[in-house]
Amino acid sequence: MSDTPVIGVLALQGDVREHLIALASADALARPVRRPEELAEVDGLVIPGGESTTMSKLAALFGMLEPLRERVRDGMPVYGTCAGMILLADKILDPRSGQETVGGIDMIVRRNAFGRQNESFEAAVEVAGIEGGPVEGVFIRAPWVESVGARAEVVAEHGGHIVAVRQGNILATSFHPELTGDHRVHALFVDMVRAVG
Fold first, then answer.
1. Is the pTM of this model over 0.90?
2. Which of 18, 19, 178, 183 is the catalytic position?
3. Does an H or E element contain 121, and which?
4. Is 183 an annotated catalytic residue?
5. Fewer CB within 10 Å, N side or C side of the chain?
């Protein structure tokens, strides 16, 4: 891999464009990923926010669930925001019927834990490993992490709840940094992808 890693954004649903912009500003070559053959060509992947049940069903429909699980097992760096965090959890506390996850982080998440759409909010969040002060987190029907296993590291909390977790090459936030113009979380992820090289 060159100094410019190729990072895909899972483009089945959600705020794909904003992640592509944030990744490009963090010096990655960003491209949408919808099919297994496109997944095979990237060095890392972002799973965006959206509706986690819909995303899991679309991933199954597009033949992406198993290839995603395989790449995660093989160590591909992945970053999930909001619904992406839910998809990266090994367990969902209150899954909808037929909802599946990709897994990869030893954690239990609660869907829509911070409330409904009209209870969305922004908050300054201190994220371990990111310098320059807190990042502005946008919480939209956001999940939180109920608990983590021994292999997962809590990197941010808000209001007494876990909102960012890292396990090896996998990062997940319950908030949306891509909506703020502050691309430090994406820069951290791009560095994670480079480190796997």
1. yes
2. 178
3. strand 121-125
4. no
5. C
